[in-house]
Structures are given as C-alpha cells and as structure tokens.
Amino acid sequence: MFLTIIIAFFSLIGLMVLHEYGHFMFAKKFGVEVEEFGIGYPPRIFGKKFRGTLYSLNLLPLGAFVKIRGEEGGIEDVKSFSNKPIWQRILIILGGVLMFWLVSWVLLSIVMALGMPSAISDEETDGFVNPLVCIMAISSDSPASMAGLELGDIIKQLSIDDHQLSIDKVKQVQEFVEEYEGREIILTIERKAEIFEAVLVPRVTPPEGQGKIGIGLTRTAVKSYPLYEAPIRGAIETYNLTYGALKGWATVISSLFNGDGMPVGAKVMGPIGIFGLFAEMGSLGLSYFLRFIAIISIFLALFNILPIPSLDGGKLVFLGIEAIRKKPVSERIEQNITAFFFVLLISLMLFVTFKDIQNLF
User: Fold this and answer.
1) 236, CA 20 to 30 Å: which among 133, 187, 224, 295?
2) What secondary structure letter does DSSP report for 205?
3) Contact status, residue 37 vs residue 20, Cβ threshold 8 Å
4) Are 32 and 45 in contact (CB under 8 A)?
5) Rounded Cα–Cα distance for residues 288 and 174 (Å)
6) CA 174, chain centre distance (Å)
7) What number of other Cβ atoms are within 10 A of residue 297's Cβ?
8) Structural domain boundaries of the chain?
9) With bands split at pLDDT 50, 70 and 90, how would you rate the model's confidence at 260?
10) What average pLDDT does this structure show over 267-275?
11) CB atoms within 10 A of CB 84
C-alpha cells in the first residue's frame, strides 16, 4: 500500500513534469527563452544552468513549472513570448495539454501490448483468454447484498447439493439461478487474492428490475495486441476515453443545471481520493495501474484546456481576444483576473481535499 502511494505520487509529479516539458519544447522550437524549468515549487534546493535555462529542484513537491521569458508581458525582445506571432504562442500554450494526450496514448499502447481485461459478450472467443464473470452492480437489500457480495467480485463457480458449475459466461449464472430459485445455492467468489464462498437464496418473485439475486453482471477477458497494432489500439482507446470523459462532464453539467443535483455515481475527488484509487488500481495489476494513469492524464488535459483564467485554456482565451482586438489585453487586468481564479481553484481543491479526509473516517 505504502509503496503504491509512493509510486502514485511520483507518477503524478511525472505527469506534471511532462506537461511543462510540452510548453518548454514548443518555446524552444520557436526561439523563446525558457529562463527556468523547475520540478516542485520554491524555495529552491538545487539548480544548474544549461544552454540558457536554469534547471531546478525545489522544496514543495506540488508539480513543476517553466518560466518563459515575456509570458507575463512587458518584454518585447526577439526571445520574448509576447513578441512571437499569436499562432506560435497558441502552440506553446497548447504544448502542455497535447503532452497529456501523448502520454495517455503511449501508456495505453503499452497496456494494449501487455493485455487488458475488456468487456465481451458470451459469444466472443477469438483472441480472448481467461474469460471471467464479474459483478458490476448490486441492488440494496437483495440476496447478493445480504450475502456480502461486492462490486468487482468474480463468480468462479455455482453449486447446489452435488451439482457444481464452473462459470465463464453470464448466461450460465442466469440459467443456474433461474433453475434453482427459492433454494439455497453456493457461490464461489474471487475477490482480489481471496477465494471464498457466499450462500444465498434466489428470489422467486424479485422486485421489478432487480433480478432474482439482485446483481448486474459483465463478462470480461484479457486480450493483448501485437506491437505493430498496439499503438493504433492505444490511439483508439485514448479517443474513446476522451469522448467518454466529455460525455460524463456533459451529463453532470446538464443534471446540475436542471436542478437534479449530482448524477448517481458521479463524484468530485481531490488528491487524497485520487491516491486511494491509485492504491486500488495498483493492487489489480500493472495494466490497470498504467490505464488509470492514462485516464488521469486525459482528465488533466481536458481540465487544463477549460477556458478558465490561470489554466492553459484561460490563456488561450486571452490570446483569442488579442487576435480579435489586434492588441493584447491590459497586463494588469489579465494578472488580476488570473490571480482571482487561481485563488478560487486553490480554495476548491482545499474544500474537496477536506471532503476526502472526512470520507476516510
């Protein structure tokens, strides 16, 4: 657990460093001076200057930063950010966001080569190994709930009297439960590294929409792809996860605006909650862990591109205004707006972190 949290911590720091490297790379490409590339935030522990850039290691391990000459305005020499064409400045700002997606693609390509459990139908067989039937939903006050079953449990075997059935398809569970409704059956369950038995009685007349034992099932199996195909699959998965994240955000926003509150299952999570998920994914194996980092990277990309001052998307908004007005927004106004939203975002993060701490107890 402790080792997983340490790895999670350095994974997140690594994402931040690569994000800033995206800005750094485009700035160097267009001849903009990068005064400092820092890991962590000051006070500075160590610094070394190389080819005009100070590379520093700092005390506060909260991310990384690049200090680009003229980014805040007021400097008009040839190596200044503010002196470059708008299209170059847009690419410098976008560099960090694009790096998040690039990292996600690389990680998901590795996952596709290693093999990752995927949801499949009972009929699919080609190329899949180790098919499993997993519990993906549990109704409250159902036989499954009272038997102590949990989300993610794998049903390995069903038995009654001398009849035993090994399970690798959803249909097998459905037919077995249907046949022995009203009688006590035994489920052999795998939960992480533990194998145990759960006893329950399928209901003869269950509530509408719940089923006889009150669970939702999905069939999963592992499939890996050859190295030449894995990058293509990684790109497709990056797109699918990005689309899914955007669709989820749209659902949340629509629900909030309609006065329905937060949708069921949606949750705002801070650093502590994310570390908890890292630990959980780490316990499931390398593919799960790498995929989770890729998902975090995608969410960071989408969050950073939001049109909020103090984020990359906010900087793009100011550049868009400059392109329309043919002159930049007042430096003082931009700094004041950015500072206000920065304080707002920090306050929100502290609030969410406090809620995460409350949920621990």
Assistant:
1) 133
2) S
3) yes
4) no
5) 28
6) 33
7) 28
8) 2-33+69-115+261-360, 119-223
9) low
10) 62
11) 19
What percent of the chain clears pLDDT 70, i.e. is strictly above it?
Answer: 89
Mean pLDDT of 332-354: 79
Dihedral sign, CA of 192, 193, 195, 198?
negative
**Which tokens in the block code for residue 280?**
């959980």
> Quick check: 291 and 100 in contact, CB under 8 A?
no
CA dihedral over 143, 144, 149, 155, signed as positive or negative: positive
| Burial 41-68, CB ≥16 within 10 A → b, else e | eeeeeeeeeeeebeebebeeeebbbbeb
DSSP label at 83? G
The pTM of this model reads 0.75
Both tokens assigned to 220: 């999963």
Indicate the fold that domain 119-223 takes in CATH: Pdz3 Domain (2.30.42)
Looking at this protein, which amino acid is placed at residue 145? Answer: S
286-310: average pLDDT? 88
For CA atoms 254, 260, 264, 266, the dihedral sign is positive
Widest Cα–Cα separation across the chain: 85
Cα 184 to Cα 204: distance, rounded to the nearest angstrom:
12
State the Rg of the chain over Cα. Answer: 26
Report the phi/psi class of residue 331: left, alpha or beta, with left for phi > 0 and alpha for psi in -120 to 50. alpha
Q: What is the pLDDT of residues 15-53, one digit of tens each?
A: 999 999 999 999 999 999 999 999 998 899 999 999 889
Closest CA to 174 of 152, 158, 198, 190: 158
